[in-house]
Structure to design on (389 residues):
């Protein structure tokens, strides 16, 4: 019995094929070139174009709207396998499917679906999602950006920060308040298009992940046509809640993929590297790290799978299960990254190995789509009866 042969109950033959195809693509088309994008600090546009051709930018969108019409478990598998090779490409798939397309699919008019959802799902357009503001990303009900209806346009003022791949996006889903006194009941969703007058996009310098195209959005009297209102006025918080539930599923899947990359690299390195005349894999303290990584990643994968199956069953909102999966998977990922770097010693921080950059990428997964403090708070509040699904 080998580690690679761990029993994996519950996947259909089709889902196993999805895994095989996504893994083969990532190993052939992403892994050999991703270091170059990292060194150049360049958004992996060419890779994104290839994943678009595979239908990965519209995985969960029904075929009638240009998508691949796959189930959530398959979507999670794709996110996991792509994240095993590249954080940014997986982020593009995640934002496009989970935050933007699922919102338009669930809340858009037929006209909006034809205009925005179809080209997004076909991968002809790229999407970004603007929720976080300079004043805070956790307390979204307290949004400072405002939207005022003037004739047949809404005029948006305010700003957003840390918006992934925004300068490459053709469509940006944003949220602003039509009345800040109403708190979450004032939050409203809008579909912005590239080139909308008054929309300014500036890059945000980050310590790492320069290929991630992390941006600030400024709304300076930004004029959005009334037909780009998504859902109704004041319905934005509901749209946002549904979107982040799906977002947490794809982020948790990505955590499993990135953590698996740590296991892969650590197993290889532990067998290659010698100290005191033996492979370092023979040392118990190295073995402990490897055993902990494997166990926690296996558990994370099962939590993610449960969430995917719950979403496929479509019984109800899965906010609690989403928080549990995202919290556990991102903590497991960060721990796996730290242990993998430690196993690699000084080379863990050298450019020769990708592991060092995972320190930054893994950390983001504990912050984005709800910080882990927020998820701990939510899980406890559901359990204590202070909050309901
Ligand atoms: C690389 C990167 C990409 C991102 N991409 C996007 C994107 O595409 N779109 C987007 O909208 N956002 C994006 N974000 C933003 C991300 O979602 C936010 O950073 C996150 O939600 C936290 O918001 P904040 O940074 O304002 O922290 P804050 O909300 O200011 O929180 C600061 C600290 O206080 C803690 N805290 C806050 N409230 C509580 C509480 N009630 N109880 C306990 N602790 C609390 C937080 O956990 C955190 O530790 C991205 C961020 C990064 C780093």
């Amino acid at each position: 019995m080998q580690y690679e042969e761990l029993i994996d109950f519950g996947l259909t033959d089709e889902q196993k094929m999805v895994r095989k195809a996504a893994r083969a693509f990532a190993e052939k088309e992403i892994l050999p070139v991703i270091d170059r994008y990292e060194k150049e600090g360049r958004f992996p546009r060419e890779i994104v174009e290839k994943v678009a051709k595979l239908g990965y930018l519209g995985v969960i969108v029904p075929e009638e709207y240009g998508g691949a019409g796959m189930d959530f478990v398959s979507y999670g598998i794709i996110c996991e396998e792509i994240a095993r090779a590249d954080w940014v490409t997986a982020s593009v798939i995640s934002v496009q499917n989970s935050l933007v397309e699922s919102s338009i699919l669930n809340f858009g008019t037929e006209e909006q679906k034809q205009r925005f959802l179809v080209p997004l799902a076909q991968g002809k357009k790229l999407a970004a999602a603007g929720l976080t503001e300079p004043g805070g990303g956790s307390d979204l009900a307290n949004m400072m950006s405002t939207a005022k209806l003037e004739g047949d346009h809404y005029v948006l003022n305010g700003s957003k920060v840390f918006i992934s791949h925004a300068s490459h996006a053709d469509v940006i889903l944003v949220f602003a308040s039509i009345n800040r006194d109403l708190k979450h009941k004032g939050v409203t969703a809008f579909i912005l298009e590239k080139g909308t007058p008054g929309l300014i996009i500036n890059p945000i310098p980050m310590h790492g992940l320069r290929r991630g195209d992390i941006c600030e959005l400024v709304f300076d009297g930004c004029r959005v046509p009334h037909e780009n209102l998504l859902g109704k006025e004041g319905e934005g918080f509901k749209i946002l809640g549904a979107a982040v539930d799906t977002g947490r599923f794809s982020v948790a899947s990505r955590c499993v993929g990135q953590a698996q990359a740590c296991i892969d690299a650590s197993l290889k390195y532990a067998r290659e590297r010698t100290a005191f005349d033996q492979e370092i894999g023979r040392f118990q303290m190295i073995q402990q790290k490897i055993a902990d990584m494997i166990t926690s990643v296996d558990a994370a994968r099962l939590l993610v799978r449960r969430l995917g199956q719950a979403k496929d069953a479509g019984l109800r909102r899965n906010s609690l299960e989403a928080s549990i999966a995202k919290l556990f998977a991102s903590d497991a990922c960060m721990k796996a990254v730290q242990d993998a770097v430690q196993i690699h010693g000084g080379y863990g921080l050298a450019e020769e190995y990708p592991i060092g950059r995972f320190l930054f990428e893994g950390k983001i997964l504990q912050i984005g789509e709800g910080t882990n403090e927020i998820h701990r708070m939510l899980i406890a509040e559901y359990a204590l009866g202070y909050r309901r699904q």
In short: The chain has eleven helices and ten strands. Residues 95, 129-132, 136-138, 162-164, 209, 212, 214, 364, 367-368, 371, 373-374, 377 surround flavin-adenine dinucleotide (CB under 6 Å).
